[in-house]
Amino acid sequence: MNSSDDPFEAELRALGESLHVPPPPEAMADRVLTALREPAPKRRLTAKRLVAAVAAVLVVLVAATPQGRAAVAGVLRFAGVEIEVGGSAPLPSGSPSPLPSETSAALADARAAVAFPLVVPAALGEPDEVTVADGGQVVSMYWDGVRLDQYDGTLREVWHKELGEPFPQQTWLGTTSGVWIPQQHGIEYLPGTGGPPVSLRLAGPTLIWQLGRVGLRLEGVPTLQEAGRIAESVR
């Protein structure tokens, strides 16, 4: 296939030509150029990952200007999370709900129960508790006041969040892009078998990022600096 016929390359080029925004970090430009030089099969996989990274860049670009904040009333999708931004988002009330069919498991058993690799932040050590939910769709790890959810972030949206201001903030975890949500917000789970969203609870500040297939959301760490330190220690 000629490079000019590759749909993912065409999508990236069209996106670049249509956006009139400040230039992204130099690392992003280097990644785009590298992707366009790769063989077509590998370029398709890299392009899919770049789409997620570009979405994260758009978060910070939109939030950076009053015009952007006024114009946004839509949905951002990043690392398996659907983030609805704009307007005044109501905060949920009532008792927290568990994920569908959520059960406790040993870490080794959780690894065997899912189709994606699990990681553990070295900065936190072995989790105090591990649960597997929705037939292996989500693994949650718990430490004192801290929660880390892991799931396949490449297949579909797994979580839905509704945010007013402040807008989510794009950040970099080494060469990996992430999104930081500093405020409390409502969170819903989107079941793997379809059906209506499951309203879970009021979530605290959250860092979202993706490593290969694995989508991650780290909740319960009050600052971006500390959340970033934990995220960069995953192994």
Whole-number count of domains: 2
Structural class per helix/strand content? alpha+beta
Order of helices and strands: HHHHEEEHEEEEEEEEEEH
Estimate percent helicity. 25-40%
Describe the model.
The protein contains 6 helices and 13 strands. The protein has 235 residues and is of the alpha+beta class. The protein has 2 domains: 3-63; 72-231, no CATH class. The chain has an 8-stranded antiparallel beta sheet, with helices on both faces. Mean pLDDT is 77; it is low at 18-25 and 60-72.
What descriptive keywords fit this protein?
alpha+beta; five-stranded mixed beta sheet; 6 helices
Quick take:
The chain has helices spanning 7-18, 26-37, 40-63, 66-71, 107-113, 224-231, and strands at residues 75-78, 81-85, 103-104, 129-133, 138-143, 146-152, 159-163, 169-173, 176-181, 185-189, 198-203, 206-211, 214-219.
List the helices and strands and how they pair.
Elements (H helix, E strand, L loop, with lengths): L6 H12 L7 H12 L2 H24 L2 H6 L3 E4 L2 E5 L17 E2 L2 H7 L15 E5 L4 E6 L2 E7 L6 E5 L5 E5 L2 E6 L3 E5 L8 E6 L2 E6 L2 E6 L4 H8 L4
Parallel strand pairs: 2-7
Antiparallel strand pairs: 1-2, 3-4, 4-5, 5-6, 6-13, 7-10, 8-9, 9-12, 10-11, 12-13
